Every structure is written in C-alpha cells, then in structure tokens.
Amino acid sequence: MREELAQWDFVALAYGVGLVALAVLALWAWRTMVNAEARRDAMRRR
Amino acid sequence: MHIYANPTRFLALAKWLMPLCFWSGLSLALGAMAWGLFFVPPDRLMGETVRILFIHVPAAWLGMGGWTGIAISSAMLLIWKHPLAAIAARAIALPGMVFCAVCLATGSIWGRPTWGTWWEWDGRLTSMLVLLFLYAGYIALTQAASREGTTPKIAAIFGLVGAVNVPIINRSVVWWNSLHQPPSITMGKSAIDAAYLTPLLVAVIGFSLLFGGIVLMRMRALIADAQVEARLRRRALDDDVPLAGAAAVMEQA
C-alpha cells in the first residue's frame, strides 16, 4: 500500500530547519566576533 | 599563503574579505533556494521533495569540505607551526558541525517521503553521523587545549586521522548497498538535468561563500580573544615584577 504524504510539508520542514540553523550560526558568529573585538579594543585603550 | 600566517596581515585581509564572502554568499544561497523552491519543476519520481536537494547537497558538501579544511590546517600546524593554522581549524569546526547536522536533518526529512523511513543504518548515513561525532570530539579537544593554554597538537592529529572518514562518506554509496542514490555528479559528468543542476551549482557556490564568511568571523573572534589573553598575561607579568623585586629585597634582608 502506498502511503500518501503531503510533500510540501517535508520541503517546508527541511528549509525551515536549514534556515533556522544557518541564521542562529551566522548571528552567533557575528555577535562573538563583535564582542571579542570590542573587548580587545577596550583593553588597548586602557 | 605563508604571508598570511601573520595575524596582523591576515586581519587586514579578513576585514574586507569577510563581509564580501558573507553577503555575496547569503544573496546567492537565498536566491538559489528561492529558485529551487518556486521555479524548478517537480521531479518525475521524487515529486516536490526534489526541492530539498538545494539545501541538502550544499550542507553535505560543506560538512565534508569543513573537515577537509580542518585536516589541511592541522597538517600546516604540525609541519610549519603556523600560528593561524590552529585558529583556522578551530574556526572551521563549529560551522562544519552545523552544516553536517543540517545535512543529516534534511536528509532524514527527505528520506521519509521518498524511502518511507526517517533513518537507515547504511554506509552513507552512518559515515555522515560518524563525521558529526568527529566534529564534536574535535571541538572538545580544541577547547581543552585552549583552557590549558597549550598548542592543540592532539586535536591536530585527530583532525588528520579523522580525514579518513571523508573518502569513506564519498565512496560509501559505491562500496555498500544503500538506499541513498549513487553519485549523480562525477568528474566532468552529471546525471542531473540542467533545470536542477544550474540552481544546485549556484546554491553550492553561495553556501560555500557563506561558510567562508562565517569561518572568517570565527577567526577574527578567536584572534581577538587570543590578543586579549596575551595582553592580560603580559600585564600579570608586569604586575609580578615589583613583587618579585620586593621578594628579593626581603630575602637579602
């Protein structure tokens, strides 16, 4: 028996997982870079 | 390449290269995904789920490419002791792990409607899962070395040894029976129709540039952390000098 599945649901889920993971990774990488460079620059000024 | 082993020279390069890679990569990746989602026809066998290709394949490519980058940086660290090689390898590890996890997750989601199962313990899926665990082990080793303030030599050896898994992943669908399809793109040949191949290539280029941009961000962060740590250590030494002098005077007295 062939199981009927809504294919677009799986497409949306895959794209959702991928985009959320990439957005979290990019934001985290950008934030850690900005914070680390601000800490270094503040220490240089002191 | 040896020229950029100097952190100051590298930072000057990374300052303009990072936003260029990131924004061009993001535009290309999002464009390719929109192309794949809305303008590509459904496949004869896989139907609409073929659209998952445009996120799954770049993620798989970068999961494996990330480890290849770790192996090359590890070799550079062990052979030439480049100060940036350890930082590059460490910077690649987390983005590589995320892309590997995205590949596994999207593959599993794709498997349910096409194979009828979320997971199968076959060569391709298992070797990719092993790669995810290798990334986790590598991150743990580099963090331990960073905490102790030592050169991550053990992590570098682990990075080189773990590279054995990359060709295993690549050839797994040829060596063993698998639900996963055999390679569709080989040297100079492709079994994929141009309607899918062109947006797929754009997606691979876009995600690779995005990956490069994120790795450069991580490298800038790790270099800044190292500079802060070096300055703090120097200050601590400077503070210790008067104390050491006082201790010597006390001893003489």
Structural class of chain A: mainly alpha
Assess the beta-strand content of chain B as a share of residues: under 5%
H/E order of the elements of chain A? H
Query: Considering DSSP H and I runs of 4 or more, what fraction of the residues of chain B is helical?
Result: over 70%
Helix tally of chain A? 1
Instruction: Give the class of chain B from helix and strand content and strand pairing.
Output: mainly alpha
Summarize the structure.
The complex is a heterodimer of chains A (46) and B (253). Chain A is mainly alpha-helical and 46 residues long.
Task: Describe the overall structure.
With 46 residues, chain A is mainly α. Helices cover 85% and strands 0% of the residues of chain A. Chain A is built from 1 helix and no strands. The radius of gyration of chain A is 21 Å and the shape is rod-shaped. Chain A starts with 6 loop residues before the first helix and ends with a helix. In chain B, 79% of the residues lie in helices and 2% in strands. Chain B has a single domain (15-39, 47-176, 195-236), classed as Four Helix Bundle (Hemerythrin (Met), subunit A) (Up-down Bundle), CATH 1.20.120. In chain B, a hairpin with a 2-residue loop joins strand 1 and strand 2. The N and C termini of chain B lie far apart (56 Å). Residues 246-253 of chain B have low confidence and may be disordered. With 253 residues, chain B is mainly alpha-helical. The chains are: A mainly alpha (46), B mainly alpha (253). The A-B interface holds A 3, 5, 7-8, 10-11, 13-15, 17-19, 21-22, 25-26, 29-30, 32-33, 35-37, 39-40, 43-44 and B 22, 26, 33, 37, 47-49, 51-52, 55-56, 59, 94-95, 98, 101-102, 105-106, 109-110, 112-113, 116, 210, 214, 217-218, 220-222, 224-225, 227-228, 231-232. Chain B: Residues 6-180 form the Cytochrome c assembly protein domain. Chain B: Its main location: membrane. Chain B: The chain crosses the membrane at residues 20-40, 60-80, 92-111, 123-142, 154-176, 196-217.
